[in-house]
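Postdoc handover notes: sequence design on the structure in folder B. Input C-alpha cells:
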C-alpha cells in the first residue's frame, strides 16, 4: 500500500466521522526529518549517558548537537513546542559551556 493510498483511507475515515474536531496527524517516515529526529534522539541519549558518568563539558556539546537537530525537526514540522523547547535548551546548555570556561 502506497503513502497516497494510506492518506486517502485516513481521509475517508475522517470524513465518515463528520466531525470538525478530527485532525490528520501523521509523523513523516523516511524523509529528512525522520533521519534528523532519530540521529538527534540518539545524540541526546549519548549526552545523558555522558552526564551520568560526569564527562563534563563534552556532555553539553553533544547535547547541543541533539538540541540543534530537534530544533531543525521542529522547523520542518512547523511545531512551535519543539522549536521553543530546543532553542531554550540550546541557550541554557551554551550558558553552561560559557560558565565552565569563563565563569560567566
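Designed sequence:
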Amino acid at each position: 500500500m502506497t503513502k497516497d493510498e494510506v492518506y486517502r483511507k485516513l481521509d475517508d475515515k475522517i470524513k465518515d466521522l463528520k466531525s470538525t474536531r478530527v485532525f490528520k496527524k501523521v509523523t513523516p517516515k523516511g524523509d529528512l526529518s525522520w533521519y534528523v529526529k532519530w540521529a538527534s534522539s540518539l545524540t541526546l541519549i549519548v549526552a545523558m549517558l555522558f552526564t551520568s558518568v560526569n564527562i563534563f563539558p563534552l556532555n553539553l556539546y553533544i547535547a547541543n548537537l541533539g538540541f540543534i537537530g530537534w530544533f531543525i525537526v521542529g522547523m520542518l514540522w512547523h511545531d512551535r513546542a519543539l522549536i521553543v523547547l530546543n532553542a531554550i535548551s540550546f541557550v541554557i546548555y551554551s550558558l553552561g559551556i560559557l560558565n565552565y570556561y569563563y565563569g560567566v
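Context for whoever picks this up: The chain has one domain: 28-102. Don't rerun without checking with the PI first.
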